[in-house]
Amino acid sequence: MEEEGEEKAAGVGKGEGRAGFGMDFKRWVQSTFLRRLGPAGGGGGGGGSSRVGAVGEGVRGDDARVPEDRESQRVLPRGFQLNVSWPKVNVSWPQVCLSCPRPRIAWTKINVVRPQVSVSPLKVNVFWPVPRAFLPELTRPTLMLYGSEAAVMKARGKILAAGQLIIHPYCLFRNYWLLMTGILTVINIILVPFGASFFTDDMLIGAPWTIFNIICDFIFVVDVILNFFTGYTIDKLENVMDSQLIKMNYITTWFILDLTGILPLDYILTMTSYRNLKVRSNNSTYNRYNKINRLARVCSLLRLFRFSRLLRSVQYLEEMQEWTKYGINAILSLIYLFCLIILIWHWNSCLQFLIQKLLNFPENGWVHDEELEDKSIGYKYSFSLLRTLSHMNTLGYGTSKVPKGIPETWLVSISVLTGTALHILLVSRMTAVAASSNGSKRVYQDKYDECKIYLHFRRLPHELRCRVLEHLHNKFKGKWFDERKILEEISESLRLEVMTHSCRDLLLSVPWFVKANNIIINSVMKELKYEVFQMKDTIFRKGAIGNKMYIIERGVVVIEDADSEKKLTKGNYFGDDDRGESLLL
After folding, report:
1. What is the pLDDT, as a whole number, of residue 216?
2. Residue ranges of the alpha helices (H) in 94-167?
3. What burial class does residue 344 get, using C-beta atoms within 10 Å of its C-beta: 0-12 exposed, 13-18 middle, 19+ buried?
4. Where do the structural domains in the chain lie, given as residue ranges?
5. Which residue has the higher pLDDT, 436 or 3?
6. pTM for this structure?
7. Is 145:237 a contact under the CB 8 Å cutoff?
8. Which fold has domain 490-575?
9. CA-CA distance, 372 to 331, in Å (whole number)?
């Protein structure tokens, strides 16, 4: 029984561990029934039953407890046995089975195509403060380009808002910069061939000549850089200020010539040979130095490519000053041609002496014949210029005899051909200038000759011929023009201004139009016609239909009658009055 009680007690303990409320229910029953029935012993329950013995007897079981309060316990009669059966509570927890199906992964082949990424250089927009000198000025070329002052100011605002360091082609800075580079270009194209031909080696590597070349080269390098940021115009109608278009335009036009003109090949060759001569001063090194020095003289002539800057400067100056507007374009073209001829004379003179210098003054050369090796620079240049003028003007070979040697012969031949071409160019240009400068006078002469042929064909009297020809001369003053066609080709507002300037004061000299409004005056001015009468011409006779009114601009008109004579001068009028009656009696 004890083992069985222990097992049952152990079972209750397990049930308590499972259910969690078995011992609480047992204690509630014990406390309730023991208080009513008297003292009782508690027994350990296991499996749902327990046995309680009499008071005073030992209670067996692990779960039996005897209350310590004896007074509150009631003693049962001897031999009385209380059997308490505990209900068996079976708590079964449902078994939850979670079955997770094994996932089946179907691997699909994925073709990953790499995108073609075109990486372009990062474009960084930098806001540059544009100087005022880079903005367009209010000049006639800019007004013709943009149309009005408001458009010019608007263009300024766009340039400032864009924040790009772009030089406007008609700005103040470019005016002064082109003027400076033009003057330096003229100095370079004169002194560079002169120095390469007549200067000694010590003068070429001397401080004055070196400093001059370094300053000029630096300015022209800066000019090449500025050309990448200078806008340009297309036929004076469109202004291009886009940086990419400016760079492409400069690279495809003038960049190669400008780059060739700033290459310092002569400096590199001269410094290299001079340093080698100091390190090893022997005959072979000295000969090599002479050869490199001669090559450096030839390479210095690359600076003559700067002549293109002078052409651009002159073209820009013509646009800004508008010399064509004042009719001096023909004269300027002749001046340019004469300057070009003189420059070619100078280059040819330097080249004549340079060829002899590169050949180390051969014995059959003209320099050796004239004994110019030890003469001064001015003396050498004078003889060389005389020889050049003789060649180019086909006057001979200068003071020397027929050229000897192949290099000298070819050089003289090229010089003669160049001179002949310049003569042809000069004569043709002068003829074109003469023809274009007096176009109106030439047309008048043609008309005058045509009128003479007509008068002769009609066999008119000599006096009448003279009057007709004199009429043409007084009317057109030696220049032919058609006033009606000229006024028809201009706008109505300009036509009205021309007529106002020519006829308004004359028209207001008539009393009828003094108090008239502008509409009437303008309408009358449009109908006015210019007529010229010779001395003793009869304008109209008495009794003729008066459908015209004349206002005298200059001269004298005599109104003759049988009994009277009246003279009218400038500002007087005659013809019809407002009633349709003749004013000439």
Report:
1. 94
2. 140-146, 149-162
3. middle
4. 2-85, 126-319, 322-428, 441-481, 490-575
5. 436
6. 0.60
7. yes
8. Jelly Rolls (2.60.120)
9. 40
